[in-house]
Amino acid sequence: MSSRDLRYQARRALAGRWGVAILAGFLAAFFGGLVNSVSNGISIELDEETMKYFQMSESTIEALFGVALSATTLSLVQFIMGGPVQLGYSHFLLKMHRGEDAQVKDLFSQFYRFAEGFCLYLLRGIFIVLWSMLFVIPGIVASLKYAMTPFILAENPGMTASEAITASKELMDGHKADLFFLQLSFIGWAILNVFTLGIGSLWLVPYINASYAAFYRSICNRLDNVVE
After folding, report:
1. Which pTM was predicted?
2. Counting Cβ atoms within 10 Å, is residue 146 exposed (0-12), middle (13-18) or buried (19+)?
3. Structure confidence by residue, pLDDT tens digits, 3-17
4. How far apart are CA 180 and CA 177, in angstroms?
5. Best label site of 106, 160, 161, 207, fewest CB within 10 Å?
6. What's the mean pLDDT in 35-48?
7. What pLDDT, on the 0 to 100 scale, is given for residue 66?
8. Burial code of 39-52, b = ≥16 C-beta within 10 A, e = fewer?
């Protein structure tokens, strides 16, 4: 199925459900999104005369400390809750793709599988980071071959995280380029999103993720037909 067809499938699944999809996507990003922190490592020496322009009041220091503490707390919450929330979001997307009554509460429906979700979140992240350390391209390839892991684990309650990762590698064999081109097809929307100051992400995030669900089901249906 082409990227155009997959985007059509995503829009059809979202039709009449944009409100709940936007809320679910926002909550999924809040609780399970990755936090990227980059340290530039730049050191600047300032003399005493220059430093007086950068003196901060006690209230400013307290405010900055509060922001840092809030960011750290959110990062910890995302690290702990990211896995089961990701499973729940995958469950939500697949229900929506099947035309079922997907609800925001589905986002938290997989917490009974907390261990599997956490291990999935942790292992997949480690594998992608390790491949990325080799070079950019291996990191991209790793992210593509592990991309279907949450959907697989969401559909197979008896499967472990490592088994789901292995299944995703096998499922994506020969399909990584297809997913890559699907991702590229959203570049135009991503550029337009910049001009909305990120507000457009509320619509773009569920649109992209719904297309991933369509991609997953397309591959599974294709494999089922081959087996038959």
Report:
1. 0.78
2. buried
3. 999 999 999 999 999
4. 5
5. 160
6. 36
7. 61
8. eeeeeeeeeeeeee
Q: If 0-12 CB within 10 Å is exposed, 13-18 middle and 19+ buried, where does residue 62 land?
A: exposed
Q: What is the 3-state secondary structure (H, E, C) of 59-95?
A: HHHHHHHHHHHHHHHHHHHHHHHHHHHHHHHHHHHHH
What is the Cα–Cα distance from 173 to 168, expressed in whole angstroms? 8
Share of the chain above pLDDT 70, in %: 77
